[in-house]
Specification:
The complex is a heterodimer of chains A (736) and B (216).
Chain A lengths: L1 E2 L23 H6 L16 E7 L5 E7 L1 H5 L3 E6 L21 E2 L5 E7 L2 H8 L3 E6 L6 H4 L12 E4 L2 H7 L2 E9 L11 E7 L2 E6 L4 H12 L6 E4 L15 H13 L3 E4 L2 H7 L6 E9 L5 E12 L20 E10 L13 H19 L3 H7 L4 E2 L2 E5 L5 H12 L12 E2 L2 E13 L5 E7 L5 E4 L9 H13 L6 E4 L16 H24 L6 E3 L2 E4 L2 E4 L9 E9 L2 H4 L3 E13 L5 E11 L6 H20 L5 E2 L4 E2 L18 E5 L23 H13 L18 H8 L1
Helix pairs in contact in A: 9-16, 12-13, 15-16
Chain B lengths: L2 H5 L1 H22 L3 H5 L9 E8 L2 E8 L4 H8 L18 E4 L2 E4 L12 E3 L1 H4 L7 H8 L9 H16 L18 H7 L10 H14 L2
Parallel strand pairs in B: 1-5
Antiparallel strand pairs in B: 1-2, 3-4, 3-5
Classes of the chains: A alpha+beta (736), B alpha+beta (216).
């Protein structure tokens, strides 16, 4: 099915099941520990051997020699895989560095060996017996020092310009020119990257924790040099991804190689302290933002430049993208430059581009509003645009940013905000309110599904779509129930298996809308098959387990009485996403309390108002947003991969050193979804929401801290050491 | 370790074995050539130990490498994979189980230290179709997303409510001598050893609050 004209009334609009806050259908499995993740398929894999990964101890250089003798002699060892003995390996299209290093080492903790043993303890012990003689060479690890050598990236749009930014900025009566930094960040999902692999003849059967099944199949096949048809990849449950499991990683490739070498099924999980330097991360950025405005607060010139780093052949963090679309202004430019850094591979993490970009832009907007003496909510509203500012003939499909801001301000009690920073104190606490816009583009992508109507009337959906905590199982079940007119409990959903039709996968907040649109397409075909079988017209009505047309009223299940009916289709897209700019919008409101003496920041309350098309399940969608808000709190206050600029690695590579928010950091979170449908996105009229939720959060918190303390911090995270020597009330007490 | 543990010779011996293993491990990391170590293979031969765990009410006889954590004993030997390995370093709480009535990180405890102990895992709290009230509350409040920290959150919260009931104080209490208040801040403080990267905290506290309210 092709979606190339705006959606009109369709079976989803009935909203008998879709749009309801139903509990997750996989909830009983997840809460009882019976959902099986990649390392846990004991039922299917008897007596697996255990693989333990050894990571490189240098950041750049080569391996002169590896002495495996002691490790091979260690009890229980079955095989040791290294680049020396693994045979020729390719590199996945989605990987920047190779997944098994040696002799060349591209980054610290790049995998260089897998020890396979009878038990985990034996594999771990033996891995420590491997002696490696390295030949280290100097690398580049410091973005600030590499900035001057950064070059124009080969891909994407590194430079954009409309009007005459230089002259307009120079002529603007009010100007802001500020530089912001965001640090390297880690996905730190709770389930480590893990795989269980076995060889069935020349076919690789692999359970792995991966967001994108078809990408995974392609890159496993390419890396191992086998046909895609010889890879059966399954990822039914995934313990978090956030972009960190978009791509095949060392666990999958090494489990496959280990299983081949040991002639046994092998399972491999990356040890937590290896993950931070072995896998991908969100790269640090340096961002310069210039805004010129009239004294009345109209933006006339806006520029956003960003520098980031990656390994050779890598890509930039596209932190300037939202600035091309978010605010009006006749004269504008953006630029991205990419430095070569020899840290682990930089790549996508929840809302790549917009998340760090909004961290900077939305502080800049706050700073400009302050310069102008205009309320920051009003300043944003005054500079709204309903068209793509670079292409005014191209409207947004739906854009309710102004509603998000206005409704949020009302619900949050924004008018109680003291207009003066550092003006509100509650005992030991300095109190501040902060706001930021939320913005993330909506991406649509081809997605397929197969739908079966069984003799028992049960509808079964099969697609290689993944559920990384997003609620895919449930919204897909809701979609099929709505389309086939059956109750939710009569739908079975099977996901994450390369035997099923290729879906959008989970990433870029495209999965919810795209995968359900694919199910819509397959169900449309199944409805036709049912109607034909029952001798009913194609426009028959499916509801309450019945198919009705004219005076005929038949049970849906009757169509399958003599045998299962199966339909398969996919949704593909025309050019509606080119003719209309499809984006999602929101507003974040935050109250923080900063300890007047220590500078410790506590988040008191948070509200997000989101306009993101039809909300397919308000319960799971809300969870996506509160989860993103929580990750935004981490970005604002604590998350920072600290680079050892001499040895070239992230120092705080575990969950004790890399501080993600815990229960005590997060208050009750409020989320409001505006009632909206977007007929340009798909027949579901839905858009993404999981990444919108993080965009702008950190800036709203930083702005609230500024409002509480009067201290403007432009370098994330906003830790107390950046505040403590400038806290106003403490200074006043010292004077007295 | 309490008095009775100290008097239990089997347990004392097991702990001594554990220490020996750690010392040996550390020494081997820093000293000696690999060939010297390879020449004395018996030195790193696994030390096996028989033990019995009482898991979810059933006695489980095991013979384990003494390096095996309680977590890996449950997951890899008893195939109770509801208890999750998130970090293996006591930093995330995904492996929380209830041993002897207390919540512990199963990754920080060797299995041989639990010979004869009662251990309750997520599988022992409830099953699909027969959910524990806390499991049901987690479903109702969508107090999870990916589900990987969830068993640990649930085991932790069930044991945590017992701690509150017994008046065990926390950092969040203004007066540690007074009976702790059943406030969201108390619950948040006491649950902070269980990380949820998906960020379901707001919903988890609401689920726990509902169960706590139903069982004063």
């Amino acid at each position: 099915m092709k979606f190339d004209t705006p959606a009109t009334k369709n079976p989803i609009d009935r909203l008998a099941v879709v749009g309801h806050p139903v509990d997750r259908i996989d909830g009983p499995l997840k809460t009882t520990g019976t959902a099986r993740y990649a390392y846990e398929h004991h039922d299917a894999v008897a007596r697996p051997a255990y693989g333990y990964v050894l990571g490189a101890g240098i950041a750049k250089g080569s391996i002169h020699s590896m002495d495996l003798a002691a490790a091979k002699a260690a009890p229980g060892v079955l095989a040791i895989v290294t680049a020396d003995n693994a045979g020729p390996l390719g590199k996945g299209d989605k990987n920047t560095a190779t997944l098994l290093g040696g002799p060349t080492i591209e980054h610290y903790h790049q995998a260089i060996a897998l020890v396979v043993a009878e038990t985990f303890e034996q594999a771990r012990w033996a891995a420590r017996r491997i002696r490696v003689d390295y030949g280290p060479v100097d690398g580049t690890f410091d973005l600030a020092r590499a900035k001057e050598s950064a070059s124009k990236p080969a891909s994407g749009k590194p430079d954009t310009a409309v009007g005459d930014f230089g002259n307009a900025f120079a002529a603007a009566p009010v100007q802001l020119d500020a530089t912001y930094t965001t640090p390297d960040q880690s996905h730190a999902m709770m389930e480590p990257h893990a795989s269980t692999a076995l060889w069935d003849g020349d076919t690789l059967v692999i359970w792995t924790s991966n967001q994108m099944v078809a990408w995974g199949v392609a890159d496993v096949a390419k890396t191992l040099g086998i046909p895609k048809e010889k890879v059966h990849l399954m990822s039914p449950f995934i313990g978090g991804g956030f972009g960190g499991k978009l791509f095949v990683r060392a666990d999958a490739v090494l489990a496959a190689l280990g299983a081949r070498a040991a002639k046994r099924p092998v399972k491999v999980a990356l040890p937590r302290p290896l993950m931070f330097n072995n896998t991908t991360h969100r790269p640090a950025t340096i961002q310069r933002i210039r805004i010129g405005a009239t004294r009345e607060g109209r933006i006339t010139a806006i520029a956003h430049e960003s520098w980031s780093g990656d390994l050779p052949g890598g890509k930039p963090e596209t932190a300037v993208d939202q600035t091309r679309l978010l605010y009006a202004g006749a004269n504008r430019m953006t630029a991205m430059r990419l430095a070569v850094l020899d840290l682990a591979e930089a790549n996508a993490m929840r809302a790549p581009g917009e998340a760090p970009g909004m961290m900077a832009l939305e502080i800049a907007i706050d700073e400009m509003a302050e310069k102008l003496g205009i309320d920051p909510v009003q300043f944003r509203i005054a500079n709204d645009t309903q068209v793509d500012p670079e292409h005014p003939e191209r409207p947004f499909s739906k854009r309710r940013l102004v509603d998000c801001l206005a409704i949020g301000a009302e619900k949050f009690g924004w008018k109680a905000r003291n207009p003066h920073p550092a003006g509100t104190r509650d005992g030991r606490w300095l109190v501040g309110f902060g706001v930021a816009a939320a913005f993330r583009n909506n991406l649509v992508t081809r997605s397929g599904a197969r739908v079966r109507l069984g003799k028992d009337g049960v509808v079964t959906v099969e697609t290689d779509m993944t559920d990384i905590g997003t609620g895919s199982y449930t919204i897909i079940a809701q979609t099929a129930a709505e389309m086939m007119g059956v109750p939710l409990h009569r739908v079975v959903v099977r996901l994450g298996d390369s035997d099923y039709p290729v879906s959008s996968g989970s990433g870029g907040q495209w999965g919810g809308n795209s995968s359900t649109a694919g199910v819509y397409a397959a169900c449309t075909k199944l409805r036709e098959a049912v109607a034909t079988k029952l001798g009913l017209p194609p426009d028959a009505d499916f509801a309450d387990g019945r198919v009705r047309a004219g005076s005929r009223d038949v049970a849906v299940a009757d169509a399958a009485r003599n045998g299962e009916l199966v339909a398969e289709d996919h949704m593909e897209y025309g050019d509606l996403d080119k003719r209309y700019q499809q984006s999602t919008f929101g507003a974040h409101f935050v109250e923080v309390r900063v300890d007047a003496a220590t500078g410790e920041t506590r988040v008191k309350r948070m509200l997000a108002v989101c306009a993101a098309g039809r909300i397919l399940n308000p319960k799971t969608a809300r969870s996506q947003v509160i989860g993103a808000m929580t990750m935004g709190v981490g970005a604002a206050l604590s998350e920072h991969l600290v680079v050892d600029r001499y040895a070239g690695f992230f120092v705080n590579h575990d969950l004790a050193g890399y501080e993600v928010p815990v229960h005590a950091d997060i208050p009750h979170l409020d989320v409001v979804f505006l009632d909206e449908t977007d007929p340009m996105s798909s027949p579901m009229k839905a858009k993404g929401v999981a990444e919108l939720g993080i965009c702008g959060v950190a800036a709203a918190i930083a702005n609230a801290i500024h409002h509480a303390t009067g201290v403007r911090v432009r370098d994330y995270p906003v830790t107390l050491d950046k505040l403590i020597d400038r806290l106003p009330l403490l200074a006043r007490e010292e004077e007295s | 370790m309490n008095e009775s543990d100290a008097m239990n010779p089997a347990r004392r011996e097991a702990l001594a074995l554990g220490r020996d293993m750690l010392v040996g491990g550390a020494a081997a990391c820093w000293a000696g050539s690999p060939s010297a170590r390879a020449a004395s293979p018996r030195r790193d031969a696994p030390v096996m130990r028989k033990l019995t765990l009482r898991v979810n009410g059933a006695a489980q006889a095991l013979e384990l490498d003494t390096r095996t954590t309680l977590l890996d004993a449950l997951r890899e030997h008893l195939h109770l994979t509801g208890t999750k390995k998130g970090c293996d370093h006591g930093q995330c709480g995904a492996c929380t189980v209830i041993a002897g009535g207390r919540r512990i990180n199963a990754c920080l405890s060797l299995a041989v230290m639990h010979d004869g102990d009662e251990v309750t895992t997520i599988e022992g709290l409830g099953k699909p179709g027969h959910l524990h009230p806390m499991q049901a509350a987690f479903v109702r409040h969508d107090a999870y997303q990916c589900g990987y920290c969830t068993p640990g959150q649930i085991c932790s919260s069930v044991a945590m409510l017992e701690e509150l009931r017994h008046g065990i104080p926390s950092h969040a209490a203004a007066d540690v001598a007074a009976a702790p208040a059943w406030t969201p801040d108390e619950l948040r403080e006491r649950m902070s050893g269980n990380i949820c990267r998906c960020g379901a905290y707001s919903n988890i506290i609401e689920a726990i609050t509902e169960v706590a309210g139903a069982q004063p």
